[in-house]
Each structure stands twice: as C-alpha cells, then as structure tokens.
Design a protein that fits this description.
Layout: E1 4-9, H1 13-23, E2 29-35, H2 38-48, E3 52-56, H3 64-74, E4 79-84, H4 90-94, E5 100-103, H5 108-127, E6 137-142, E7 145-150, E8 154-160, E9 163-168, E10 172-175, H6 179-185, E11 190-194, E12 197-200, E13 206-210, E14 213-217, E15 224-227, H7 232-239
Helix pairs in contact: 2-3
C-alpha cells in the first residue's frame, strides 16, 4: 500500500511535535504539512491533497470544525481526526462525519487506533469505486512451484519465521513473500489483524479473547488467527459494516 499523506493542524507547537513524533513511528503514514490556524489548514489541504488531517478544534482565526468542513467540501474522501482538550465539541465534530475524536493529552495507542480507522475507511472507499478490479486467484511460488489459489478460499496468511503460510479450508502453502507484499496484492477485505497475520474478514465466524490478545476462528477446526489488542476495535468496526 502507498503511504497515506497526513497533515497536522494545531496552534500549539508542542502538540504538533508530539503528533509528528508518534506518526513517524509508523511507516504507512507520511506527514506532508502542518498548520497553526484553520486558514492555514485549508491552504495546506488545497496544496497537498492529503488523505488524513489531524485537527485541533480550538485554533485562532478559524476553528478546527469550520476549517475541516471547508476541507471536506474540497476533498470529500478526506479523513478528519479531531484532537482537543475539551469533550464538549464531540457532537459538533461528528456532525461533519469525523473519523475519530481524541481528547488531549494524546496517548500513542489511542492515536494509532484513530489512524487505523482512517486507513480502513479509505480502503473501503476504494472498494466502492466504479469497475473495481478484483483478482480471482492469488499466484505464489511455493517450493519451486507456482501455485494458483482461489482468493475466496483463503482464510488467513500467517508469518512463520522468514516465510509465509497461506491457509485455506483444506491446505496450507508456503511463500517467501513478505506480509506487506501479500497485502498489496489482495483485496481490501484482507486486513492485517496482527504483525504476523493477514486475515480474510469475510471468513471470520467468531472472535474470542485470549490473554492480552484475541483469536479469530473460522468454519474449519484448528484454523485460528491472532488479532492484536491494538487492532480489535477496527476489526469489530469493519465486521459491523
């Protein structure tokens, strides 16, 4: 997947610095601009056309909610994550279809969850475009042989050491590709639920807690995939659509 472009808008320099530091820990996102006022945010969005904006609500000249409205009019696919020190603006924020609303002080995990929500919303938008191209089969090189697997038969893909295991109802196939390469080749309903698992969300029939993490179960005995604590909320949201 290509990097998602992010703009940070906050009149507080320390807040922008903290958000930048957290986001730079994630390779999927690239900060393409910053703004300290609502008017600056609109200008940056017009120039950079980002995928995601992090917007402080209380900013000078033009508040974050009004600025975000203007940005959404220009760029309807834009994902807006509000950051604020007050909870009183939550209703107003969600009236413009905000992706998420984070109350300061911002915690790293909470920010990562919001970014995941934004990423998944963008991916789902991609599925609704006219004439989507969806492959029927996944081609992999397994033990010096090319294997063509029906995508609808894949339950999940698991990272095991330096190789990947593609699990179907009846078989398992080894591949030397990376999990990221596999994700890029598969439809968007294959979601990375854990650093070592790429799961076909359409095949999940049950999710159970397991210690500090979660387990996804399928209609096949002994086939299970991990879901991290960080990703469980996003998984629930996607399965509820």
């Amino acid at each position: 997947m290509e990097e998602l472009k992010v703009v940070i808008s906050d009149d507080d320099v320390s807040s922008r610095t903290l958000l930048s530091y957290f986001i730079e820990l994630l390779s999927e996102y690239k900060i393409v601009g910053q703004a300290s006022t609502g008017k600056e945010l609109i200008e940056v969005v017009m120039k950079e056309k980002p995928n995601i904006v992090l917007v402080d609500i209380q900013m000078p000249l033009l508040n974050g909610v009004e600025a975000a409205k203007s940005c959404k009019e220009m760029l309807p696919s834009l994902q807006v994550i509000f950051t604020t020190g007050c909870e009183e603006f939550a209703v107003e924020a969600f009236n413009i279809s905000a992706t998420d609303y984070i109350v300061k002080p911002i915690e790293k995990v909470r920010l990562f969850i919001a970014l995941e929500k934004a990423k998944q919303a963008l991916q789902l938008q991609g599925l609704t475009k006219a004439n989507p191209v969806i492959k029927n089969k996944l081609a992999i090189k397994s033990n010096h042989t090319f294997v063509y697997i029906l995508i609808e038969d894949i339950l999940y893909i698991e990272k095991e050491g330096r190789k990947l295991i593609v699990h179907t109802d009846k078989d398992r196939y080894e591949s030397v590709e990376s999990l990221q390469e596999m994700e890029d080749r598969l439809p968007k309903y294959f979601f990375k639920t854990h650093r070592s698992y790429l799961v076909n969300l359409r095949k999940i029939v049950k999710i159970k807690p397991f210690g500090e993490t979660y387990i996804a179960e399928f209609n096949v005995p002994d086939k299970k995939a991990n879901i991290s604590k960080l990703k469980i909320q996003v998984v629930h949201r996607l399965l509820g659509l």
